[in-house]
Structures
1.
Amino acid sequence: MYEQNNTPPPTRSAAHQDAIDVNDFVFAATGARLRRLTLPDGEHWFVAADVATELGYVNTRQALLAHVSPDCTRSLGEIAQDVCTADTSRKLAGHRLQKSMRMVSLKGLIRLVNGCTKPECVPFKTWVDEVILTVQQQGSYSLEPAAVQPAPAGGTAYVMPEQVVDALVRLEERNLQMDESLAAFAGERNDLLRQINRSQSRMADALDDIVQALGRRADRSRPVSEAVLTPQELLARWKAKNLVVTDDVHAVAAVLAPTLVRGEARYRVEEIATRTGLPHDRVHDCLRMLLKRGCLRQTGCAADGAPVYVRP
């Protein structure tokens, strides 16, 4: 048993030589190249699902029931039982054929063609009509022998019917046009993919620029953290700028500095006077001096009435 697609079967005897090559015959009938099994006796079988799909049938099982007689359809397993060998099993597996597949004979294929509405099948069906009409009128139909014949052992070569030739030519032209269309489409698709790739690259670059710009803006808007001062450093800074000129002012500043370096300082005059031993009036004068020299500023008063001081 031979599995076929577009290649002819091994050489057969003249008794089994097809008058019309089965590949061309099926292509003209269905408009497609179909998987085929050829038995040693020359009988051809086709995958029913392939035939039904190419001819536009929605349901293979219904198509077989409606158009094909039971003797024209068998499972691949049934066919394989008759001629099954180890080599046959390997060929079936190699061509993704399963024994559960339904197969149709060439007669069954012709019946499916006659029942379909595919436009590509019209020339073939027209030729079939002419063959039947010729048989009815003249009692027989025969092909004209070819002018050039093969060797005597090769059988007789025949001229292919004009209708079949026309169908083959139209189908091949259609296939060439489809190939050209597919090639053009592939070219357009590749161009589009290149354009998309360039656009995506530009978008990625633009997004990267935006991220970098936002990062620079965030860096500029982020306040520069001021170095943490110790109370001693704050007092030394005031003294270096001649802001603290007397011991009394320095004593009051020494009370405020430890709290000012951490934030707000909330002290009443009485509390500062107690810590420094200075009179209330003198503490008040020292605070006025610190405020006047810009060492600190008052932002308000706390709930208990104590003034709130911060560094300027």
2.
Amino acid sequence: MKMINDLPDNWIVKPLGEVCKTIKGKKPKDSGPASNERTVPYINIKAFESGQPQEFAAPGDYPSCERNDVLIVWDGARAGLTGHGVSGYIGSTLAKVYSDAADSRYLFYFLCSQYDYINSRTKGVGIPHVDPLIFKNIPFPVPSLEQQRCIVAEIEKQFSRLDEAVANLKRVKANLKRYKAAVLKAAVEGKLSEKWRKAHPDVEPASELLERILAERRAKWEELELAKMRAMGKESKDDKWKSKYKEPTEPDTTRLNQLPEGWLWVRLEQATERITKGSSPNWQGFDYVEKGIPFVRSQNVLWGKLDVSAVAHLPKGFNEKEAKSVLQVGDVLLNIVGASIGRSAIVSKEVQGGNVNQAVAVIRLISGGLRNAFLMYYLVSANAQDQINQEKVDVARANISLSDIADLVAPLPPEQEQKKIMDEIARRLTITEKLELEIERNMKRAERLRQAIFKQAFRGCLAIENEAGATQWS
């Protein structure tokens, strides 16, 4: 048993198992929606979290709990998480903890303070479980019941202030998220650059920019075709092979919003030289390695940001098999499978020459046309997300195809205006990012304060008052 030093003289310390009893939950034989037979709530993990049971059981001899009982998650990744009961039968992954020597709220807060200790010392392969020996031997400081209630009152008073501060931080964070969404919406609709457009009426229109993009797209295709022929030992005798080129079709704009003067709607196929995706290492017979080519997965592609802190690595041979999806700086990435569909980021130098898995699309734009940053911000805007969600197919796991991406319609502003829009977005989002970092720092600070309050409380270091208003210790 780990020791607790410097406690008040009138406190005692006992192993938790000597002071508390634990009753493990049990799954009823017949449980499901409420019915004439199933009348007793079954408190599974969902009901534990929400306080709203959705599953019920017929009356029987099963461990039960009441509303204010202390429950702890006994099995699973969150083993050690403590909460309050809901009247009903205790779920099979939960346990009730109670003590005749401790106020239930005092016990609740103490167990909350021990979550990291319990959760980091679980046992079991596959599914972790609370280790009973670890749990029973946690030193439990036991002051008098009056002192326990005073400690609880002080904890709740300090937590109330802390919760209010955290709630304010969350409100500011939510407001920043809404502000960012509004900035992107205004940017891709031309509202951010409205004054600039009026001051620059003679800017080259997007129609001329598109002509150059399409010409460059064809030139890229011809270059690639010539390289293929030469690799096969063939030489071009005439230009008939050029007729194989397929001009990308224009978008159907009948249902699209009107764009500012000088802008155009384009299908992504028109503005890109490549739209592809990667592959699973398992499919290609590769295992992850400590050092190798960077391998970007969907969890690395965030909302407008590439997280390179947890990029995996593969042998260089993977690029030989999946040459089509080798990354270049400036490529736009788009998640196309699972819950993270629609997240987009730009390839940075840290992952240049790397590759992606089958859940990430690589969009390579024609140079000098649609800017990669503009496209990325458009893809994560509400405007594009509506399109992406319409294309999404839910078969076992949500996904969108490469042809769906090619069909996505994006606004094409004049080249100079794109630069102005990027400057305006950067100016605004730089401020919000700084504020978001400050909020995250304060959220972490609040959690440290919460742990500090627990530490002081269960060492007898909180300044508390008894019922007569006199300070008992500090």
3.
Amino acid sequence: TFGPSSNNLLASSWDSCVYLYDAGANVRLASFPCKAAVLDCCFWDPQHGFCGGLDRSLKMFDFNNGSESVLGSHNGAIRCVEFSLHSGLVFTGGWDGQMLAWDPRSPSPCVQSLPQPGKVFTMALSDNRVVVGTSGRQVVTYDMRRLTAGPETQRESSLKYQTRVIRCFNDRTGYALGSIEGRVAVEFFDPSPEAQAKKYAFKCHRTADTIFPVNAMAFHPIFGTFATGGCDGIVNVWDGQNKKRLSQFPKYQTGISSLAFNHDGSLLAIAVSYTFEQGEIEHPEDTIVIRLVSDSDVRQKPVNVRK
């Protein structure tokens, strides 16, 4: 994940470390060792970050002095870590079937525990809304201003197979969801029949005889188009509004595990990493590729209207 207003990139890794890079200068600034594999991380502000993983602990790092502290823990691995600028809270989702809300400024940081319908696989924030994707293909939304009221909505994914990733639209009206079946669903928060009639799904990351999981997704901060990355090693960019593919990047040597645009959309961080969908086999070394993004890759193209 990129910093809120810089090209600093925070990356979590299965090698039990969190890494801080200056992606613009291609320099590693710091590394922070942990006790076990780290599954997710995020920035709090330019000087601090959070991470969680298989050791079950939510850690906070100070990038200036290298110090770290533990805010608390889950009863299982922490899969997702997200910071909300709107509420000032950190949200974590775990394989223990819990979403926890944390106030890092409080002496008792854990302020809310919300049971989920299954293991948390993915999580996304949209303004004051938290969207949680769990095992069993459930998608649960919360209003972070009214967490004690429980879920705002709970619905089943419109896709038939396991959810891998959810990311929210820039305009806060809905989200895109990727699954292991090489499909993406475009969904809307508004429960009205008019809004729900606009939802759709499309096939991607597949060949004539092989279907690849969609592992990663990122929305461009300026244009609102979105990139997807799959186990096929391909990154596609889509215009969700006009239902068109805008570009496809050359194939990478193994699958794409994560994607992130920087604050102005000029850089795309691509985590190229085998995700063990075929078990323990020989695979290329994990790498992070920083791609310079041109407008032609990500800008919506005019749609020809037939008269």
